[in-house]
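Reproducibility note. Readers wishing to regenerate the assembly model reported in the main text can use the exact inputs given here. Chain order matters: entities are listed in the order in which they were concatenated for prediction.
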Amino acid sequence: MAADTQKPRQLKYVWDFQDQVFRGIMRSAGSSVLIIMALVGLFLTLRATEALGTVGFGFFTTQAWEPDSGNFGIAAVIAGTVIIALIAIFVAVPFSLGTALYISEYAPRRIKRMLITMVDLMAAIPSVVFGLWGFFFLQNEVTPVAKWLSQNFSWIPFLSVQGSDPSDPLTPNTVFTSSSLIAGIVVGLMITPIVTSVMREVFSQAPIGEREAALGLGSTRWGMVRNVVLSFGKGGIIGATMLGLGRALGETIAVYMIISPVFVVQPRILENGANSVSSLIALRYGEATQMGMSALMAAGLALFIMTLIVNFAASSIVARSRSGASS
Amino acid sequence: MTSPNMAEEQKRQLHGIRIRDLLTTVTAAASAIASTGFLFSIAPLNGPLTFVLIAYVLFIVFFALITAIDDDREGVKDRVASVVIRSAAVVIFSALVFIVVFTISRGFEALPYLNFFTEDMSLAGPLDPLSSGGILHSIMGSLIQIAIALAITIPLGLITAVFLNEIPGKYSRFVRTMVEAMTALPSIVAGLFIYATAILLLGVQKSGFAAALAISVMMLPIMIRASDVVLRIVPGTLKEASLGLGAGAWRTAWMVTLPTARSGLTTAIILATARGIGETSPVLLTSGFTASMNLDPTNGPMVSLPLAIFQFVKSPEPTMIARGFGTAAVLMFLVLILFMLARILGSDKNVFGNLVKNIKKLTKKKVA
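Running the prediction on these inputs yields the following structure tokens for the assembly.
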């Protein structure tokens, strides 16, 4: 036989001119995203060098914002951002977990699609509308609860309120308004849709065989959910939480509308006064001198890097988990 | 196989609502509300939210106790978990509905005035009644800005999404990761970026165009991700058929992939528009603020709907706050309309197909 002469043919694909142009356009469009992200980092850094050069490492430890006298740093606003984001996560995760489980496990099939659409719609509500709602409605509702908490649990450091006497029921309500708690609750509601939709996606991928096995062995629905769906979706839950955290860190307008800004680290979440990097930028950009603008750019750069780190950590957790491997 | 007592056996109800669950829930809820009312009368508690929170905790306790009368441990856990999960969903969906209804109902103070839609704020001060001044300038501003942003993001976003699907490999995987990172870009940072490049470096003044650029930075990743998901489900066999018949990559994408995904892509575009039109913080830094009409995006400040809301409610005057809510209601209506449009165009069976099907069904029944 002539088997040894039958070598595989060399296949070479030649793109014609039209396709070469098309592939070139596609590649450059794809690169545009990379270019934009690189430019964001580059320009913020360039603009921030002046401010960073002035205060040096003190930028990370100073609790003040007076750029024109050279006394400024992001210690207070970063702490405020993290506090608000953590409250938001604390509010959003239990509700998102419940809603995601409801949609994927409990909801009747015919309303499932409608519920998914409603979650998407909630993600599209502008943040300024959330801010209006938080400021004109939620604030009045949360104040009595905050008052009650501070009066009964003031021995927990972060629930105490300066200027409020636990034994005096007539404490003015104004010390409980514009607090990190209210801003955190509003931001929590804003990140709930994204967290819910990531979790729901993961839960709906839980293997049908394992679900049926659990139910067939006599498990209750909750037993099945806990042992199959939740353990399958563990990575997805953590990833979704961190994605939500990334969003919460960057939220601007709703926070700006609710808080009254302070420039010290303010860990008492029920008390009037809070701050965040993004609302600092929104607050001070208008009156900023060149130095002030540079300082704001430095703050923006810090926020940008923080959200990038949180986000990459989140996506790598999701990708490594059993549930994320397929997506 | 035929057993004598087969007929006597009743069919078990596997889904739907059991009457016992309904009674348990109602009883637990009633006793929780009654006990909370009692607590409020003896303890120094006030506020509707406090009432709801305490009542809810009591409700769960009572519900568990009632279920425990005739169920084992696992059964109680199952019932309680189901109630907690359902109530989380109820809270979230009612919060959503409530935010929409709250905004629109507070907006009704300003909406009946026709001048609200036909005038700008150049001649109306904060103390003027609602019968003068309006938001036409911000409606036009929003439309112009979103049109420019769409002109940038539709081609760029769609081509990038096609790239992610047609040229798979290490590079496109990296681009996909960066797109995901870009969706989380804080909106104020997008504003700062355009401020640093377009305004400070290139000398573009604060204008509608600069604002549109900032909105584009926010919309681009949303559009890419949404269209990427749509393009990924275009059947590979269709593309292979096209390539097998001798079409090139360009013709396959243009004549097969994109038309197949048309309805899904429309949805992706509309969803990104709905997000873009509500962005405040990138616009805040880049568009400037004006109370009068400006239709030229390249020259002078141009205000958009979310920015107008933001400026209105900064004022302590009740009429300005009413205008703010009126503007918010208009914005919500816009977003809702865009959303419904997206769902109608993006549903698996589009409206016309559905209509034809229904008509066929009806005529069939009549014939039979």
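We highlight two features of this model. Chain A touches chain B through 95 residues (CB under 8 Å). Residues 17-55 of chain A form the longest helix (39 residues).
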